[in-house]
């Protein structure tokens, strides 16, 4: 990969985009360091794709500014396009061509001589485990194979920075795991990766740092561990025997800890952030004294799900597009 000195890969200040009257991206600052995987985590419609498209020069920036490796995105779009490999949420490959033909075509479109386009393409097919399927039309590919081919296509020019827009949405768990390995491999080869995801576990597993985006705004940023710490060292997860007791339980928690529990949409379930795990006992005793029966209880390290719920007051609603393309 191209040698890029350590430092800042992406810097955005007050990035904004308005569609009609809707502010899809509403003043976001970003600081992505070279060599890291930076995750933009947010539910459907949060503005993730719009941000990536602006940074990739595919969409005009309405407000704020952005630099990639020190190059201004709005002023020098042609330089930016040399620096960034973009992989779309919707694969950009041609259905009627084979995998090998697709990569060759991408290489040619990027200005590589024919023989070079073929050898780079074959290297990538090999690296992504697609050599056996190289001469099959894409129409016969599974969702996971398409994603890998799409990623391979974005790597033809060996860009130092890769944008991955929801690289595993709709993939089955095994294929997701393979994709994660592939993404980690990119970083091991010296790439910087900016990815979007609506999966909390994906942000947790892959990212060095995460920005949580909701309604076009950044609501939190940090390492996955730092984000988990924002909701306390540990979480007391309670399932009440009777969901009608939720208001009483909230009152008890507020009295004992001076803070409110996070209500889960699942009826009767509440998560209580604890500074110290041993405060769990006091909460349980107070609930019993108040006559609130509990169906199940556990103490866990907070998940990013709880972080999201605590930060935004709502769940990630990202389970509505499970299609496997
Ligand atoms: N081209 C467009 N025209 C109008 N509205 C758009 C357009 N693209 C995105 N939006 C709206 O902007 C918001 C953010 O969209 P998007 O960036 O695609 O979110 P995400 O990628 O996080 O799901 C959504 O409300 C979406 O409907
Ligand atoms: Mg999107």
UniProtKB/TrEMBL annotation:
Membrane topology, record value: Peripheral membrane protein
GO molecular function, one term: ATP binding
Chain segments annotated as coiled-coil in the UniProt record: none
Keywords: Antibiotic resistance, ATP-binding, Cell membrane, Membrane, Nucleotide-binding, Translocase, Transport
Pfam families reported for this sequence: ABC_tran, DrrA1-3_C
Domain ABC transporter: 10-240
SMART domains recorded: AAA
Intracellular or extracellular location(s): Cell membrane
Gene3D superfamilies assigned: P-loop containing nucleotide triphosphate hydrolases
NCBIfam families: drrA
Family listed: Belongs to the ABC transporter superfamily. Drug exporter-1 (DrugE1) (TC 3.A.1.105) family.
Name the UniProt record assigns to this protein: ATP-binding cassette domain-containing protein
Provenance organism: Nonomuraea salmonea
């Amino acid at each position: 990969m191209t040698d890029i000195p350590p430092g800042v890969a992406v810097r955005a200040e007050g990035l904004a985009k308005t569609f009609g009257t809707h502010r899809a991206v509403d003043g976001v600052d970003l600081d992505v360091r070279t060599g890291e995987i930076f995750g933009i985590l947010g539910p459907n419609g949060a503005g993730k794709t719009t941000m990536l498209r602006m940074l990739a020069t595919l969409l005009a920036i309405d407000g704020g500014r952005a630099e990639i490796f020190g190059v201004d995105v709005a002023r020098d779009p042609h330089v930016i396009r040399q620096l960034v490999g973009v992989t779309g949420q919707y694969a950009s490959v041609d259905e009627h061509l084979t995998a090998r033909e697709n990569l060759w075509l991408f290489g040619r479109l990027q200005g590589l001589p024919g023989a070079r386009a073929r050898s780079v393409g074959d290297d990538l097919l090999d690296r992504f485990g697609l050599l056996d399927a190289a001469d099959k039309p894409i129409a016969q590919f599974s969702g996971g194979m398409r994603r890998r081919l799409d990623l391979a296509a974005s790597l033809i020019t060996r860009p130092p920075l890769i944008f991955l827009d929801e690289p595993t949405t709709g993939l089955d768990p095994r294929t997701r795991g393979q994709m994660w390995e592939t993404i980690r491999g990119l970083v091991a080869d010296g790439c910087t990766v900016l990815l979007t995801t609506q999966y909390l576990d994906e942000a947790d597993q892959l990212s060095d740092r995460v920005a949580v985006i909701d309604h076009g705004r950044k609501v939190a940023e940090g390492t996955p561990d730092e984000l988990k710490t924002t909701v306390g060292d540990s979480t007391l997860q309670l399932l009440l025997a009777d969901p009608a007791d939720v208001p009483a339980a909230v009152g008890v928690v507020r009295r004992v800890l001076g803070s409110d529990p996070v209500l889960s949409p699942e009826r009767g379930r509440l998560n209580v952030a604890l500074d110290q795990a041993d405060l769990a006992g006091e909460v349980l005793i107070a609930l019993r004294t108040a006559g609130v029966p509990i169906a199940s209880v556990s103490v866990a390290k907070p998940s990013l799900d709880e972080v999201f719920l605590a930060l935004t007051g709502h769940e990630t609603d990202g389970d509505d597009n499970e299609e496997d393309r």
